[in-house]
Amino acid sequence: MLGIFKAREAGLVAIILIICIAMSFASPYFLTWQNFRAMLLSFSIEGIVVVGMTILLIVGGIDLSVGSVVCLAMVIGGKLFLMGLDPWTASMIAVLVCGFIGFLMGQCVTRIGLHFFIVSLAFMVIARGLSLLITKGTPQSLFSLPPSFKFIGQGDIAGMPFVIILFFALVVFFDLLLRHSTIFRKVYYTGSNEKAALFSGIKTKRIKIFCSTLCGLLSGVAGVVYMARFGAATPQFGIGMELSVIAAAVIGGASLNGGSGTIFGAVLGAALLSLVTSSLILLDVPVYWQDIIRGLILLVAVSADHLLNRRKRGASAKS
């Protein structure tokens, strides 16, 4: 299984390198720090959500509400700040609310027996409705946020945006946990074969709730960073984000059937999507084609995942 992960990741690295080489000849602006900085910024905050989604996919779940939950974090944090609360406390409350949403989704799945798809679809609508209710459908201006708070979304350290540093720190942290931590190994076992994991003594329901809560918390963190970056909270923000996040995770090797995937692979998937988008812009491809091409990339990735799983099941049946 580890060999498959490495092969998928190596293949993504090769594809990214090929595109970079081709684009270096196609556009004189591609191999510039400004372009690479823009690409990194374009997926760094969303990449925080990708980390949570990848872990949830590994355990066998999925979350369609992440875009709405990110927006809700922005709205709650912004509203509490405008009401007089300091931005750090307001942001902490917003993140905890998002984590509680993930916890509730996990409870619905494990206690009632609903599927993650249906539950997260319902909470996607609920979270979006709450954002519209709190703001009455109008954007909140947060330009009065203190510079110390804005730094997490707009600041630089030695010329490197803090957002990118934060993203890679979270990637390294959770990638190491997934590879070496006992509790995160249980995530793989639960996603691979829940019944076998249950019989071996793993509390699979708790693992699912934990992963769902973690995905909500990371979505909340991303929402806070977006709030600091843009200095605003828009109730329509994040529409369609779940598709990009799921696409990045699946392209990176996370299976929709659970039991496989790595954080590093998901980051490569996000990088590939960002690279494709940047390349299309530099090549003056109409913006309307970008979603079509990204959708086709997702379709190819899901098809490849399905074929790999079918081949694996066939090999297991023969043995």
TrEMBL record:
The chain crosses the membrane at residues 12-32, 38-59, 88-105, 112-134, 157-178, 209-231, 237-256, 263-282, 288-308. It is a multi-pass membrane protein. CDD domains: TM_PBP1_transp_AraH_like. Its main location: membrane. Keywords: Cell membrane, Membrane, Transmembrane, Transmembrane helix. The keyword ATP-binding does not apply. It is found in: Cell membrane. PANTHER family: ABC TRANSPORTER PERMEASE PROTEIN YPHD-RELATED-RELATED, RIBOSE IMPORT PERMEASE PROTEIN RBSC. This is ABC transporter permease. It comes from Thalassospira indica. The lineage of its organism: Bacteria, Pseudomonadati, Pseudomonadota, Alphaproteobacteria, Rhodospirillales.
